[in-house]
Design brief:
It is a single chain. This protein has 4 domains: 134 residues, Beta-Lactamase (2-Layer Sandwich); 105 residues, 2-Layer Sandwich (Beta-Lactamase), CATH 3.30.450.20; 78 residues, Signal transduction histidine kinase, dimerisation/phosphotransfer (DHp) domain (Helix Hairpins), CATH 1.10.287; 146 residues, 2-Layer Sandwich (Heat Shock Protein 90). Helix content is 43%, strand content 28%. The chain contains 15 helices and 18 strands. It has a 6-stranded antiparallel sheet, sandwiched between helices. The chain has a 5-stranded antiparallel sheet with strand order 2-1-5-4-3, with helices on both faces. A 5-stranded mixed sheet has the order 13-15-16-18-17. Helix 10 crosses helix 15. The longest helix has 49 residues. The model has no long low-confidence stretch (mean pLDDT 81).
């Protein structure tokens, strides 16, 4: 009776142990003897093998025959002989699962099991499937390898800023571009040691401004490096900070490239631009005096011919005076373009009634040669601080264009209004309009809409460019709303803060 109770208690204990073993979260198996007979294996381990519970009681190599030729059986036998545990990380194992031989990766440990006398009687095997992690790491490594290959092929260096130690780490090409040879991290001051003295402050500020609270976290600057042979090399340094939260930068990295060739081209282009602007400036100045004289003589001859009663010749002189006037405007435009490109456009500002500028401008314009009725809605009644002549120049250009590009229409609408803290001037015509693909470029220098109809109108494409620059320097904005064959509305706004009085 006592023995039966003991046996029952042992059976209960074994059952509890089996249930506990099978419910161990990790994959676990127990082997006995040198042939590694599978004494126990929980469902997780059996699942790793791609088998079922029939493997219990079989040797490992018979239960999982694809393990033959792989190192695992000999590793187990070595642990059994020596009593020394063995562990591995991300070890590859080829197993037949769902009828297919597949490669899996495991972290595993083989630990000896000893009896009460210390003799080895088996091995406990625990394993974790890390296949997804390893495959993800392999993909990342492959991506990094492709990226590095692409960067090297494109001659792009990389850098990474260690925020905890204030060190800048450059890859091999980055160090080469900066003319450095030190290994490991460098302080930003050390990185700047070969930067041209005139550019150091700009580079330092561009980098450090990234850490300001109101920054978007980007860094972008171009600067010169003094090479070992005392030559000059241009670099482009670009980076972006990644934020952990609104205020904390988690990561700051970027690229650096050699732009010496591109910069040389830009410098050559700037030189040509300077020569062109200089030519335009000299030519405009030199032509202005004789053109003014021609206009004066033409006006004098016109008056003399009218006195003599020769109206036909007087009319011809009137037309000549008009053409000379157009030439004068062209010369003034060329001179303004030269001043704009050299940042020498002058302004003489004072307080003026905005609507008076509009009405004076309309009064001075010659509408006798056109049939357009000018309708006005001048609702703004304040003064504005500006250069009257420059703003008149813009208004004149916009109104002249409205008339020019609506030859088959008979009205132009001009309005002024206050919108929030701005005064807005607009000119609406009902003429040929502008297509969507051209609307973005109408304020570019020398740009003219590339349609046969538009090319039938005179002009060099300077007026809107000059107008846009005048409005920009007055602190305002200029824009156009247009639809092809419907018409255009050109507008500009000027700020009123500190203006109205």
């Amino acid at each position: 009776m006592v023995m039966e109770n003991i046996r029952a208690e042992l059976r209960n204990a074994e059952e509890r142990y089996r249930i506990l073993f099978e419910n161990i979260p990790g994959a676990t198996a127990i082997y006995s003897g040198l042939d590694m007979e599978i004494v126990m294996a929980n469902p997780a381990m059996i699942g790793f093998w791609g088998k079922d519970s029939s493997v219990i009681g079989k040797s490992l190599v018979k239960a999982v025959p694809e393990l033959e030729g792989q190192p695992f059986i000999s590793l187990l036998q070595n642990v059994y002989r020596t009593g020394e545990a063995f562990s591995a990380k991300a070890a590859a194992a080829v197993l037949e699962v769902n009828g297919l031989l597949q490669t899996f990766y495991y972290d595993f440990t083989y630990s000896p099991l000893r009896d009460v006398n210390g003799n080895i009687e088996g091995i406990i095997h625990s394993a974790t499937d890390v296949t997804e992690l390893v495959l993800a790491q392999q993909k990342i490594a492959a991506s990094e390898e492709r990226l590095n290959f692409s960067l090297q092929s494109a001659a792009i260096g990389t850098w990474n800023f260690d925020l905890s130690h204030d060190y800048l780490f450059l890859d091999a090409l980055g160090q080469q571009l900066f003319g450095l040879c030190e290994e490991g991290g460098l302080s930003f001051e050390e990185v700047l040691q070969n930067v041209h003295p005139d550019d150091v402050r700009e580079v330092y500020n561009s980098f450090m401004n990234t850490f300001h609270a109101d920054s978007d976290g980007s860094c972008d600057c171009r600067f010169r490096i003094i090479t070992p042979d005392q030559g000059i090399k241009w670099l482009h340094f670009v980076g972006k900070a990644l934020y952990e939260d609104i205020k904390t930068i988690q990561h700051f990295a970027g690229i650096v490239t050699d732009i010496t060739k591109e910069t040389a081209g830009i410098e050559a282009q700037r030189k040509l631009q300077y020569q062109k602007d200089n030519f335009l400036s000299i030519a405009s100045h030199e032509l202005k005096t004789p053109v003014t004289s021609i206009k004066a003589y033409a006006q004098l001859l016109e008056r003399m011919l009218k006195k003599e009663g020769d109206l036909q010749k007087a009319d011809m002189m009137t037309r000549l005076t008009g053409q000379v006037g157009k030439l004068t405007i062209l010369l003034e435009d060329l001179l303004d373009v030269s001043k704009i490109n050299n940042s020498r456009l002058d302004f003489k500002r004072d307080y003026y009634s905005f609507n008076e500028i509009v009405t004076d401008n309309l009064r001075d314009m010659d509408f006798q040669e056109n049939k357009h009725a000018i309708e006005t809605n001048l609702s703004f009644m304040g003064n504005i601080f500006c250069d009257k002549m420059r703003i008149s120049q813009v208004m004149n250009n916009l109104i002249s264009n409205a008339i020019k590009y609506s030859p088959d229409r008979d009205r132009i609408l001009i309005t002024t209004a206050q919108r929030s803290t701005d005064v807005v001037f607009s000119v609406q015509d009902f003429g040929i309009g502008i297509s969507k693909e051209n609307i973005e470029r109408v304020f570019d220098q020398f740009y003219r809409v590339s349609t046969a109809e538009a090319y039938s109108y005179q002009g060099m494409g300077l007026g809107l460019f000059i107008s846009a620059e005048i409005i920009r320097q007055e602190g305002g904005k200029i824009w156009v709303e247009s639809e092809e064959n419907i018409g255009s509305t050109f507008c500009f706004s000027l700020p009123l803060h500190n203006n109205i009085r």
